[in-house]
Amino acid sequence: MDDWGMVGRISLILACYGGANAYLGARMLQWLTLMFPQIDRGAFAAVMAVIAASTLLGLMPIPQPFKGIMAWIGSYWLGIFLYLLLFFLLADVIARLGSLAGVIPSPAPWAIRFCLGWAAVLPTIGLVSYGLCRANHLEVAAYDLKIKEAAWPAPLKVVLVSDLHLGALRSEDRLERVVRSINGLEPDLVCLAGDIFNNDYGAIRDPDRVMELLKGIKSTHGAYACLGNHDGGRTLEQMLGLLERSRVKVLNDEHEIVGGRLILIGRLDASPIGGFGGRRRRDLAEILSRVEGLDLPVVVMDHSPGHIGEYDGRVDLVLSGHTHRGQVFPINLITRAIYDVDYGHYRKDADSPQVVVTSGAGTWAMPMRVGTNNEVVEIRLR
Length: 382
What we know:
CATH topology of the largest domain: Purple Acid Phosphatase, chain A, domain 2
CATH class of the largest domain: Alpha Beta
Number of strands: 12
Mean pLDDT: 95
Distance between the termini: 43 Å
CATH architecture of the largest domain: 4-Layer Sandwich
Helix content: 40-55%
């Protein structure tokens, strides 16, 4: 996409977001005025404008602590915004249908408008509260997979973790539980399949603590990572430095022979935010040519499952994340429609690799989970 195409796309997104916030502000004001007739409309509009803008300001290169405050407000607002928008739209549709059917007078009386407002606000409060609590839980998903080329005397236990989004709200507190869960599974190999960071190394509150926690990962054959779309930008080298100090080996379209039992390949993400400092995703044929002739199973870490069509029978297993399984309902319906597989185990046909997509161990944008889980994945290969 050229620069003008990108500008047009961003402009459309901003226009839609701004329009949705304007609609929500108007509907909230109408509802609040029913209870508080003397409400200052100008002050309310100003507060709504700041809250709506916080989502964008939190992404801008602005000074701390202002950026941190805006990011905090914006993260919570996105979840509230999503459900308020859905439920207010639903309330308006109900009111319109009721009016057309002659059940609800037009204009709607005070009591009906009051109840329709609460019908939008109460479910929002409930789902946001549930989502915030659910995001504090960490599940373990398990798969037992047979790889056709493997002839091992015992299964190889691989733990897959993706989408930690370090620097995002609650991410560093969650990391301790993630590492504890990994170690509790006693893995032979740990794979961090991208989006370890959340765009900006500077957003991490305590890099030394993060380093010590990652360094505490216990695995027979170590921990490896590939870069996701949020692992790039101007602080990339600092991110890579932290991983190196944490004894996590990053594979940038490179391979590693793990314990003499399999070939592990890590791919660069195809759409990094801010770029990978001049690094470019290499052609798969070039990467596989380096391991041609080695009679070992091939496992690939590729952050996004949107690229699984690149792989054929030369690859045995692809490990991905990225989708978060939509993270919150109803976005999971969208990811399910976009990707061949947005979660779980998948295999297109006998000539295709097996694929495991995780919903991720962390959250992005809003610190919520509704209908999905934060998870660590245990894969037993035999």
